[in-house]
Amino acid sequence: GWRLLATWYKDAGEVEPCLHASRQLVALQPGHAGALVEAAELMLEVTEGDARLAIEEEVSDYLERALARDYSDTYIQLTLLDHYMDSGHPERARELMTRILVGEGNVFVRARQLRLALESGELDAAWPLYQSVVRDWRDNNWLLLEPLAWVAAAGADARQALWRAVPDWLADPDMPDAVVVVWARAQARAGGS
């Protein structure tokens, strides 16, 4: 009931009713990891600006409680990592990264490591991660496009450093053609900077 109602309000763009229904979902199932994550996601999807800032700690609480209930759930781990980074708490994300059970072999974990490196200006650490992530993109466009957006957000120095690495990638027989094509298009749109 509350899940469906919260989703309906979210889809209708009704912020306060969605937040209320999401909180009711948690109140009904306070120890259910799935309900906690779903409520957090609904709250994030329906808010922006000041409304988003007002719920950040509540969302963190829901996701942390969900992780405490089901610590081995990769989706919960990655959702909490994304929330920490999106809400400007890279220190929390780094600390969580040291505790999560998913190994670095998981391309989605490496993607979050890449984002942390880029946002921290650790470009030397970023490029091997970037290459590793896009090499393993497995036809998942998120793995191709999100890292590219993170590089763009990191600024001209990051884009230029990555662009200088492209010739080496072209010589790598394991690098998917789609990676080079997407990067070249992004570079052209950015004016080659």
**Class derived from helix and strand content:** mainly alpha
Radius of gyration: 19 Å
pLDDT < 50 stretches: none
Average per-residue pLDDT, rounded, comes to 87
**Treating each run of at least 4 consecutive H or I residues as one helix, how many helices?**
11
Major sheet size, sense and barrel closure:
none
Give the termini distance in whole angstroms.
51 Å
> Which descriptor suits the 3D outline?
elongated
Strand content: under 5%
- H/E element sequence: HHHHHHHHHHH
Number of strands: 0
Helix percentage range: over 70%
Task: Provide a short characterization of the protein structure.
This protein has 11 helices and no strands.
Written overview of the protein:
It is built from eleven helices and no strands. The protein is mostly helical. Helix 2 runs antiparallel to helix 3, helix 3 packs antiparallel against helix 4 and helix 4 runs antiparallel to helix 5. It starts with a helix and ends with a helix. The mean pLDDT is 87.
Provide the fold topology.
Blueprint: H1 2-12, H2 15-28, H3 33-46, H4 49-69, H5 74-86, H6 90-99, H7 107-119, H8 123-135, H9 141-154, H10 156-170, H11 177-189
List keywords for this structure.
193 residues, mainly alpha, 78% helix, elongated
